[in-house]
Amino acid sequence: MREITLSKAVNEAIAEEMRRDPSIFLMGEDVAEAGTPFKVLSGLVEEFGTERIIDTPISEPGFMGLAVGAAMTGSRPIVDLMFGDFLFLVMDQLCNQAAKTHYMSGGKLSVPLVLRTNMGATRRSAAQHSQSLHALVAHIPGLKVAMPSSAYEAKGLMKTAIRDNSPVVIFEDKLMYNDKAPVPEEEYLIPFGEAAVLREGSDITLVGTSSMVQVALAAAETLAAEGISAEVIDPRTIVPLDEETILTSVRKTSRAMVIDEGHQSYGVSAEIASRITEKAFYYLDAPVVRMGAMDVPVPFSPALEDITVPTAEGVAAMARHLVRGEARDVA
Amino acid sequence: MATAKNKRKTNTEDYLRMYRQMVRIRSFEDNANQLYLSAKMPGLTHMYSGEEAVAVGICEALTDDDKITSTHRGHGHCVAKGAEFKQMFCELLGKAEGYCRGKGGSMHIADQSHGNLGANAIVGGSMGIATGAALSAKLQGRTDVTVCFFGDGATAQGLWYEVMNMAALWKLPVIYACENNGYSEYTKTDEIAAGSLTARAEAFGIEAFEVDGQDVLAVNELAQTLVARARKGEGPFFIELKTYRYHGHHVGDINRDYYRSKEEETIWKEQRDPIINFGAWLTREGIASEEELQELRDAVKADAEAAVSYALAADYPDISEVDMHVFAPNDAA
């Protein structure tokens, strides 16, 4: 199978959907000729024109609001939010308007829009261009949240997001844009709410999101060499969450870690860990451990930044303790 | 286009409909206020009384395909855009037959069948939505126009300047209608708004107009002109409508001497009332007699009271509906 980058996968997904459905348009800062700073959208304006690939002023709440209104009136907008950190700027339009319109109108109005944005630290971009803020939107009923961990998922989830009749926020890890993965030439969609078991194992379940899936897979490889068999699960969407696949795995392995790049406190890792504890407690042989980003603003200095996010070594070390039942204080 | 003078002779039905719609709004609000005062309505609400000529003058220039976005003070827009009393009162009381199945309440009534994209409880929150609806119309080659209603208080929100900029850049068919009732919640607008509101729109190259918001004919004539121009791609436009809210910020805002005087309220109610003044004009012009207008008012009053009784007796939604409508259904794959 051919291999393409995550960036190319996103581009293909949007182009294919825009060819299929003329009501889809895309708007955001520097999306047309510039193709975004990450060049993810390069070539789209040449095919679809500036009517459908719309460069906006630097007015995130404004164009987010426009997208909500357009979605309520027959269009299917894709909003490009250049950095996930700018979510704070669009919160009212996204969370008070887009997320609630269908419910508040008793189902009369719908807001079929996609907000694509990014996440991920270690790009030396400091505290306002490095955050992973998916927990914020996952907390708001009415928003679906997708977190692809590969080019393959990025394409399939984006196509599903565009066809969904509810607002969907899709987070791409900005460090993975150039990562290649096998992606079929033929069309495919990845349904929401279906986790992928990316590696089977029997001793511990590692649930990872986005780039933390790669971290979990690397840890599983290390552990395998030591005779520890780790199962790696990628929820792919955190709203809706495929709880059953995770619980089935934990009932088998009796141990679990959840690895996610959001801040560890009050985050997605806490939510998933809590569900495991509530619903599979009697199958557990060890505490369910969260691993998230440190609860500090992301620092600029590489020496500091690198220690704020979970690493394969860290995950493997913790998994070793959990599997061997060694007493250890969990930080 | 017919001149205002011609219209007076030929558009009797239009005039009487405008009068009736204003009376319907007033009647709806009088009943809503009573529901609040008698503790029959959950929560609270914001009265539109006094501002009827704004909603009616503008909405009478629109078709059902045209869109509006509304505000926390939204009953007037909702009625003027074609909504029925029964579903509105049911919504105010949280009943299953309400426009939003009781999930929105007073501050979120949406009536999509008449192009009302919904009231909004965030001040200025619908400015993006209205502008986006206009963008949608333009992209899809439709000719519908969107009117964005908001108050003077909302002009302090940054969102407005962002979306006006885009609306002007892209020549969107949107009309920003600012109902300047002189008060930003509990504060005089003079204390929160620097400079002139029309100048703010003009700074973006948007044609801006001021009109007496108590004069339904003046409002309607301007709205007809601007809607027709917006349909031809000559928008966006801004209108500042000088008006007055008879009640407090909300129904519970009873003692308001600290921010405005009773004398001021009396002057507006007695001298500037849009319904009284338009009624007087109708009789003066021989379009309707005072008896005919009285009959019309009585009929509306009876309608409103019947709708209130209906809504009070109507069922609440079944509790199984609490988690319905969180997400929109997707077509079967």
Automatic annotation (TrEMBL), chain A:
Co-factor requirement: thiamine diphosphate
Keyword annotations of the record: Oxidoreductase, Pyruvate, Thiamine pyrophosphate
Record-linked SMART domains: Transket_pyr
Superkingdom as given in the UniProt entry: Bacteria
GO MF assignments: oxidoreductase activity
Keyword Acyltransferase tagged: no
Domain Transketolase-like pyrimidine-binding residue range list: 4-179
InterPro entries the record matches: THDP-binding, Transketo_C/PFOR_II, Transketolase-like_Pyr-bd, Transketolase_C
PANTHER family for the chain: PYRUVATE DEHYDROGENASE E1 COMPONENT BETA SUBUNIT (PTHR43257), PYRUVATE DEHYDROGENASE E1 COMPONENT SUBUNIT BETA (PTHR43257:SF2)
Protein name in UniProt: Pyruvate dehydrogenase
UniProtKB/TrEMBL annotation, chain B:
One BP term from GO: pyruvate decarboxylation to acetyl-CoA
Reaction equations catalysed: N(6)-[(R)-lipoyl]-L-lysyl-[protein] + pyruvate + H(+) = N(6)-[(R)-S(8)-acetyldihydrolipoyl]-L-lysyl-[protein] + CO2
Domain called Dehydrogenase E1 component: residue spans: 20-318
Protein source organism: Thioclava dalianensis
Transmembrane segments: none
Protein name: ABC transporter substrate-binding protein
Its job: The pyruvate dehydrogenase complex catalyzes the overall conversion of pyruvate to acetyl-CoA and CO(2). It contains multiple copies of three enzymatic components: pyruvate dehydrogenase (E1), dihydrolipoamide acetyltransferase (E2) and lipoamide dehydrogenase (E3).
Domain of life: Bacteria
InterPro entries assigned to the protein according to its UniProt record, in alphabetical order: DH_E1 (IPR001017), PDH_E1_Alpha_Subunit (IPR050642), THDP-binding (IPR029061)
Keywords assigned by UniProt, alphabetized: Oxidoreductase, Thiamine pyrophosphate
Cofactor field: thiamine diphosphate
SUPFAM superfamilies according to UniProt: Thiamin diphosphate-binding fold (THDP-binding) (SSF52518)
Example of a GO MF term: pyruvate dehydrogenase (acetyl-transferring) activity
